[in-house]
Each structure stands twice: as C-alpha cells, then as structure tokens.
Design a protein that fits this description.
One of its GO terms (molecular function) is transmembrane transporter activity. By secondary structure, the protein is mainly α. The protein is 74% helix and 0% strand. It has one domain. The radius of gyration is 17 Å and the shape is flat.
Amino acid sequence: MLRRSIPWLVLLVSAVLEAVWATALGLSDGFSKPLPTLVFAVTAALSMLGLGVSIRHIPLGTAYAVWVGIGAALTVGWAMATGVEPFSVLKVVFIAGIVACAAGLKALPGGADTPEPEPAAASASGR
C-alpha cells in the first residue's frame, strides 16, 4: 500500500511546488526581482521533476490533471488569502470542485497506478 502511495505523494508535493512557482512568478515582476526569480526557477524545476517521476506509475492524463488542478487551487487560494485576489464564495465553491475532481481521479478503481501502454503500432515497427 505504501509503495503505491509514494508516486501520489510525489505528485502532491509537485502540485504544491507548482503553486509556489506560480506565486513566485507573479512576485518576480517580470524576472526583475532576484529572490522571487530564484524561487520560481528552483521550484519550477523541482515541480516538473516530481511530475516526471510520478508519471512512471500514474497515467499521464490523470497525473497532469491532478497536478494542474491542485496547483491552480492552491495558487488561487493563496492569492485570496493574501488579498492579491478578491474573495468570493462562488470562487471557493468552484475551487473545491477542482480539488474534488482531482481526489476523484485518485479514487478511481484500477489502472490508476500503471502507466499508459505504448501504442502497438509504434512498438511493433521499432520506432
């Protein structure tokens, strides 16, 4: 059970890092501020690395949807919490919907922990 959870934990950490790099990108003022620019560069690289590692065990479409959904939800949540973006009950409801959909993808039975197979034509022809 733990072994199958590790790719999902890596994906979750990668999604959190996506929210960090998105926020740092906004704070970098077009890459003119060194610290937010550095935070952006490091967390973007780590986020992509984690996504790449997780897709070894989670189908690409599922992993990408979860990564983007959680990252976007955290980015908007942080922006509302810090006053960068106005708070709205409807916004919170829709963000909760994104998170629920990401959790639903994890909860789907079967196939969620195996990578998508290669197309038969490409592997048979040796391309």
